[in-house]
Predict the 3D structure of the following.
Amino acid sequence: MRSVVRCLGIITCSALLIAVSYGQDSGRVGIGVKGSLLGGGVEAAARVTHHTNIRAGFNIFDYSRSFTKDQTTYNGQLSFRTVEAHFDYFPWAKSFHLSPGVLIYAADPITAAANFSSINSFTLGGQTYWSDPNAPATANGKIDFNRASPTATFGWGNLVPRKAKKHFSVPVELGVAFQGSPKATLNVAGNLCTQQGVESSCSPAATTPTIQSNIISEQNKINNSTRFFKVYPIISVGLGYKF
């Protein structure tokens, strides 16, 4: 009988501790702003249990650059438009958390364009070409990743602090997005010439099989040189407020 009473006492005390712990939870929703390698972002979180949140947000990052080399003008742009969602698990119900999630690219992240000069040569797939002055060659391309990629992060800070009097937080997060190998797409318009100033050596890029084959070869070269981007680092620091 004494053992039974002792067990009941332990169970009752444990239940009271859990009830008190959960009773200290305050607020169910938090929002925040942050800066990361994905750009500036806004996110919101909702408390699910004492140890878990669900969190979602979006990020924007823009950077463009133009330069001229060998009388060829190149224009490149990074345009990250990403949406992310996470399941935050706080193993000790403190600020440290583990967060599996997903990252979604809402636009083409890397784009570029070029206008070629008929004076200077350029190469595609190892073949040297000149732009036809009567139908100047132009090119545009993009590099895409998987639209939806799994993420694995960990960090400190909680957009929904459990303490009643705590409203502000400074979340810090580290991790990676497994976005897959980059996929380059290259399109060339106008006429390309295999001999400078010789009109008979010029052919339309869009319909000439050998030129298309060289374009595909160039795409593969770009894919191989950017293969290391298949894992993208996630580092962010933010400021949150709990309602």
User: Anything to note?
Assistant: The helical segments are 2-23, 209-225. Confidence is low (pLDDT under 50) at residues 1-23. The radius of gyration is 28 Å. The first helix runs from residue 2 to 23.
